[in-house]
Amino acid sequence: MLEKREFDKSDFLWRLSTTVSIVAGLFSVLVFTLLIINYFQITRLDPVNHELLTQMRQDYASLPAKDEALAQRIRDLDLMTRKAFFSSQTHLHMGALVLLGSVVTFLIAFKYMIRWKQEMPELDEVPTADKEFLAYAQSRQLITWAGVGLLAGGMMVSYFTESALTAEMREAKNPAIEESAPVAETVVGALPVPTWEELQAHWPSFRGPGSNGVAHFTTAPTEWDVEAGTNILWKVASPLPGNNSPVVWGDSLYMTGANAEKRAIYCYNIDSGELRWTTTLSPLPGTPTEELEPMEDTGFAASTMVAHGELVFACFANGDLVALDNEGNQVWGLNLGLPENHYGYSSSLLAYESLLFVQYDQSEGGKLLALNVATGKEAWTMPREKISWASPILAQTTLGSQLILSSEENADGYNPLTGKLLWSEECLGGEVAPSPAYSNGMVFVANEYAVASGISLGGTAEAVESKVAWEYDELLPEVSSPIGDGTRFYFGTAIGDFVALDAKTGEERWVEEMDEGFYSSPILVGDRIYVADLEGTMHILKAGETFERIASISMGEPVYATPAFMDERIYIRTESQLICIGAS
Q1: 463 CB neighbour count, 10 Å cutoff
Q2: CATH class entry, domain 187-582
């Protein structure tokens, strides 16, 4: 039988181990405290959404011409920010290793401190010795587990700082980080990115530049006759049905059509109406094979395309999303998944700088996506808790560019480059279809069976302050989206009312009862409003404090889409035709 090993008492070794354990313990507490402080500093500074860098990008994007010096400063600051962040991560890892070493040293020193100072109580002389011995043992365990807990806590802080932030910096390809200069002249591969001024000179998306319902050109005609051909430059039949609206870039007009068997993109010459090309989509990876049955009001091609310089983008009811060049060749394509909603997918696309925005709402798992226009790869994504059938808008506010969306409950504003939520207001209800409108510091959202709200935006670009300034619940839109002229907001209802509200107070300025309701959205062209009703009558109204009708002109058949307005031209998609109106 082996004899149990005995440790001799050693006053010197006991003092040495006691000193080492105290120093190592205090040092461990210090390192742990520094790790905690580092964690809160990094999360508070938010290196993923650097405020100064974001502001510089917004300043660059607002310039009428490129500024290479500013662009280089943006690149330098972006590089410096990333270097500083990853240096802090290196220090964090070193701190974790130092903490590991100091805690291990403490535990070993503490263990031998106990062994070299063994003074076991004489049980026959001390009646309470068993209790004292138990307390002594429990104290040792408590100190030991405290050291283990300190080590575990430090490692967790190191891990969570890494997972919460470094993953975004390294993997998310956030445009605020990966695109060194997310500005007007950014190049993704060999692809130039249009400036905001270039977007305004075209009709790139649903309801025009930024999808905000305001035309850049103010020369639209006010007189034409479809039946007689007066001021009708050309008209062609739509090959496939689609409730999406035409978009224009350069001398090309684009739109889509689809049925249960076929999905197609069409390109027309804007001067002659000649069909330049048709691209019929083949199944993409992940394209669903099950039969899709969208509502008649949406159909298989409700989403309006977006034209963005050298590329155009289209999305269909089955979740197929595709990018084409100006010759109709597919650049990339993917399937977003079959949307689970009872209306079918209808939100229109939007593009800004190097990003394509897709509001992919569905009953569960909805999301706002920002994809790289050149590759289709995800730049950032934000979850959407509530659904809508509205489309996003891009507002050029005094606080910088904002991507504004609505849902069954909220109106939300995002930084378009980073996806950061800037503000949110719970002010809606029901199945929201009208898109938001922005004008002169106010956001306007509305929906039938809910209320209309005017939301004021204040604060700074880094800390936006939103507030519901007023509500209105008399006459409300069901499908048609509103517009603003800086003083008033205007909208049409599905039962035929056209309403003007004061932008600052929400008070009714005037209401006009029309014969038919509106699905097509109004467009502000200078001081005139163009809006087509469901029977196809184009109403031209004066934007002002009182109602004034300039003209009402029949298009000959129903109109659901929203027209495109270029210099002295209007392009209208009716139920079965595409018509160009201009001075003969």
Answers
A1: 11
A2: mainly beta
